[in-house]
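pasting for the record
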Amino acid sequence: MSRYLKLVNFEFNRFWKLFLVLIGITILSQLIGVIVVSRDYVNQANKMIYEESMPMSKFIEQNGTFSFHNISQTLWFLGPIGLCLVVLIIYVFFIWYRDWLGKNTFIYRLLMLPTARLHVYLAKATTILLLTLGLVALQLLLLPIENQLLLRIVPNELRTNLSLYEIIKEPNLMIMFPTTFSEFLLYYVGGMAAVFMVFTAILFERSFRIKGVFYGILYSAASILIFLAPILVNEFILGNYFYPLELFFMELATGLIVLTGAIWTGNFLITKKVRV
């Protein structure tokens, strides 16, 4: 276990500087976005109400009141979230190929460490999970700060106050912040299954080279088909026969099957097929 944790720490430290950059971009972009968008609304209201003598009720009727919903739809807010997502998706591939394709084939030294090779596989996946949860936690900490900043800029009569719970139920944020335990399980089990599936597909390519690309594609297609099987069967064969709760448990079960299958296959490949 200690060697596994050392590998996790090692992998996390390799991403640390870029992780800090993503944190900085997210904080700056979203805080600046709250200030810019809120002030634009207030300036527009002041111009229409005080310079053009429009009644406040008519201005609100035409433009609506201001709430955090206005912030969450902007590029200032969504841009850094999208950037973090893209970087993490790229890193899912980079975390492996960096070790193989660098000037020094570091993967060979990594796989010759006196520990089970599965620990290398799991440590990389754990790093991705920690980075994801870290960025989600950052966003959860930023939301009340940004909301308080909004309250200080926009007058009470021009805004609609939203609680933190109402904010995280915004369509753009619901996947990041599941509001029920069942949604949390489905989203994050599905997400980790996808990461392990990509890891295993990469190991197919690394094990069999050109043939491995086709093996990886077939394996990925089969995994996706298994995961979506309950939805496809319910939709196209049984005519929406199952209740949503039943469908949820079936999706959770297929997600665990894909996850377990990916780990078992990945362990087989990295132990038996990847040579050093």
